[in-house]
Amino acid sequence: MNTKKHFKLYKSGKQWLCMAIAITSATLGMSFASNAQADTDVQPQANQTAVVTSASTSSTNVESSTVSADFQSATVEVAENTNDSNLTSNVTTTENSSAATNDNSYAIAATSAKAAAATVTTPENGWNSNHTAFYQNGQTANGYVQADDGNYYMFKNGVRQSGVQKWMGTYYYFDPSSYLRVDNDYREQVWQDGTHNWYMFGNDGRIVSGLYNWQGSTYYFDPSSYLRVDNDYRSTEADGRGVLLGSNGVALTGVQKWMGSYYYFDPVTKLRVDNDYRQSQWGSWYMFGNDGRAVSGLYNWQGSLYYFDPVTYLKDTNTEVTVNGQKYKLDSNGIATAENDGVNRALSMQGTPYVWGGNKPGGFDCSGLVQWAFNLGSNYRTTYQQQTLGVHHYDVYNAPKGALLFFGSDSAPYHVAISLGNGSYVHAPEPGDVVKIGYTKYFTASYYVVL
């Protein structure tokens, strides 16, 4: 049932304004009540009361009686009884209906919810009430801090950080999902300029540089950029040895070709092998020198002389080779022995008397014996001439077999002998003596020359 309302309004200064407010408030109240009744099936009440409140301050009592009189003279069928004493300092409309009560309850609840949402409490230590910032000693946390869940996080102004973060002079990586520090893993970082880089983080979470073993392979990370090194050789040891990195960054092993030469990298340490004889991954054996390169030609190793083929790099055995005019015989183990015909010729003259100026089997002086034994020309007749046949070496106790031992100064030696390679030599010593064997420990040469 709808109640028909008739309003008789008249202009009376400030009272007109009060009446307009009151009527508007009453109308709004009735509209809300009508909506509530339609929604909740609540029957309208028989008695309704409209209360009008004046907004004036100093003349409240005077104006209230006027407003009351005016309101009573209006033909308003909403209420049967109007009590003027209900006028107060606020305009209030009250309707005795459950619908109006429900509307007020909903408004209060909504206001309370908004107020609660707008209120965020910050603790001395821990997360704030909406879990958007972490506090430590009353301040937003910064650095690597243990949160109340027992985990450590990297904070900046109370907010957990992810990705690569610098802390205490090094770099760490924090997972974008869990925000936890990442240990012993290879992770991608997307930088602000859009570039993508991958970095290795070790067992302590720190960014890795140098050699690092991960998932069964060895890698090398540049100490400056921290990036993985591919297709390059990097020195890691004080003696220059290092590792060769493949196209996927994995350290290579076995025989590998690099910059035009062959090297060998140990399967365990991954390091380059120097001065050793090693078996390749296909079964053949090769000699690697002091700089790690595969050896060819003559090479002295562990006290013996060997010869390695210049084409195949394999050790030769059971054959003869000639190097720089010197013949070598290679046994079944590949050990090379110089075939010194000159030495053998000189030894065959033992007992021949010393003859000054002699260079024939009838008699020899020291330089004449050398000239005859090695078939030297006339321009190498004297000791002064013979000392020019090669470089002067001064470790005379290591003089090889067939070397010429000189006694005296570099430019003017007074005596020459032929080394037998074991600290002994054959020579024609002096007038009145014969060709015989002498010993370095008793009569030591000054230097030697290898022919």
From TrEMBL:
Statement: the UniProt record of this protein carries the keyword Transferase: no
Keywords: Hydrolase, Protease, Signal, Thiol protease
Annotated NlpC/P60 domain residues: 336-451
Signal peptide (residue range): 1-38
GO molecular function: cysteine-type peptidase activity
Classification via InterPro entries: KxYKxGKxW, NLP_P60_dom, Papain-like_cys_pep_sf, PG_Endopeptidase_C40
The UniProt record lists the keyword Protease: yes
Database matches in PANTHER family: NLP_P60 DOMAIN-CONTAINING PROTEIN-RELATED, PEPTIDOGLYCAN DL-ENDOPEPTIDASE CWLO
Family classification: Belongs to the peptidase C40 family.
Entry protein name: NlpC/P60 family protein
Organism the protein comes from: Limosilactobacillus vaginalis
